[in-house]
């Protein structure tokens, strides 16, 4: 029977020495003595028969072999951490709370219907909905801050996604806006001369906004409802979800603009579960109810 020569703790110590740039810094970060870290790494090298680190001056550097082994060790320690998290989730059972990231173009009525269907059997689970935009939704997924994400556009890299629907954005303005007199806008340079309303990206690490961004005059707001209120006051133009402005278009409070080559924009919406291993029965139940809103049935074992 195979018996490991090394321990996870030894590999974690080696990772810390490399990540923090030396034994002294790693000892501070791990709240351990420097001598215990030296001993652990020395023992690991002896057990494996491979030199992992070499010290030059006051800093420890990986050897070529150490670099290969350290890279593989990260996968192992990460897997063990995820395994322990999974065991904890199974022990806890039904989740006390769930957080959903909703790209703001996703139809809110469908999400409300799914949450209402979840409520009778929800066992008191609290549900929080975070309205997010563009990379903000992806950021919440990548940082594992939500249980379910309704993402617009391409799903975050490395995550599986279930397509749900497609949202159509159309170009609109107030009837008093000079743009409304144009039967068809032939050149986007003409649009650039007018005030544009755009939606702010909610990501902390990016500075992109939703919409065509060539207009010299631009007002940035947090959501489509604020954008619609500005448009109805007579100012600016904006790309808005078609479903959101159907009443205003029918009443004549807003008018649709037609841009040659880009009369509308269609954005796919995908459902993403950031970590299946972390998903509990409550999250699974709510996910299935959201899928059902789009006629998607999914059998789970």
From TrEMBL:
Domain of life: Bacteria
Single Gene Ontology MF annotation: transcription cis-regulatory region binding
PANTHER family from the UniProt entry: HTH-TYPE TRANSCRIPTIONAL REGULATOR, TRANSCRIPTIONAL REGULATOR-RELATED
Domain HTH lysR-type: 7-63
Classification via InterPro entries: LysR_HTH_N (IPR000847), LysR_subst-bd (IPR005119), WH-like_DNA-bd_sf (IPR036388), WH_DNA-bd_sf (IPR036390)
Transcription regulation recorded as keyword: yes
Protein name per UniProt: Transcriptional regulator, LysR family
Coiled-coil stretches noted in the UniProt entry, renumbered to this chain: none
Family according to the record: Belongs to the LysR transcriptional regulatory family.
SUPFAM superfamilies, per database record: Periplasmic binding protein-like II (SSF53850), Winged helix' DNA-binding domain (SSF46785)
């Amino acid at each position: 029977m195979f018996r490991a020569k090394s321990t996870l703790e030894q590999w974690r110590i080696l990772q810390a020495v490399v990540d923090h740039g030396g034994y002294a810094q790693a000892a501070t970060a791990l709240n351990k003595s420097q001598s215990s870290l030296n001993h652990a790494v020395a023992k690991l090298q002896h057990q494996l028969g491979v030199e992992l680190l070499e010290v030059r001056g006051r800093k420890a550097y990986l050897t070529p072999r150490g670099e290969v082994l350290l890279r593989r060790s990260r996968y192992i320690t990460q897997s063990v951490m995820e395994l322990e998290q999974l065991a904890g989730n199974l022990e806890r059972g039904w989740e006390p709370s769930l957080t959903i990231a909703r790209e703001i173009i996703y139809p809110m009525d469908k999400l409300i219907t799914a949450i209402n269907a979840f409520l009778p059997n929800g066992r008191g689970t609290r549900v929080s909905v975070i309205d997010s935009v563009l990379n903000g939704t992806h950021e919440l997924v990548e940082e594992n801050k939500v249980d379910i994400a309704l993402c617009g556009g391409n799903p975050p890299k490395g995550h599986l996604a279930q397509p749900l629907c497609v949202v159509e954005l159309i170009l609109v303005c107030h009837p008093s806006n000079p743009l409304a007199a144009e039967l068809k806008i032939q050149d986007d340079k003409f649009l650039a001369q007018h005030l544009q309303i755009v939606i702010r990206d909610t990501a902390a690490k990016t500075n992109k906004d939703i919409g065509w961004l060539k207009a010299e005059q631009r007002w940035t707001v947090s959501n489509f409802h604020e954008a619609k209120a500005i448009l109805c006051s007579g100012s600016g133009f904006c790309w808005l979800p078609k479903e959101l402005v159907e009443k205003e278009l029918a009443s004549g409070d807003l008018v649709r603009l037609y841009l040659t080559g880009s009369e509308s924009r269609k954005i796919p919406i995908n459902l993403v579960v950031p970590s299946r291993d972390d998903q509990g029965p409550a999250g699974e139940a709510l996910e299935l109810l959201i899928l059902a809103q789009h006629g998607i049935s999914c059998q789970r074992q």
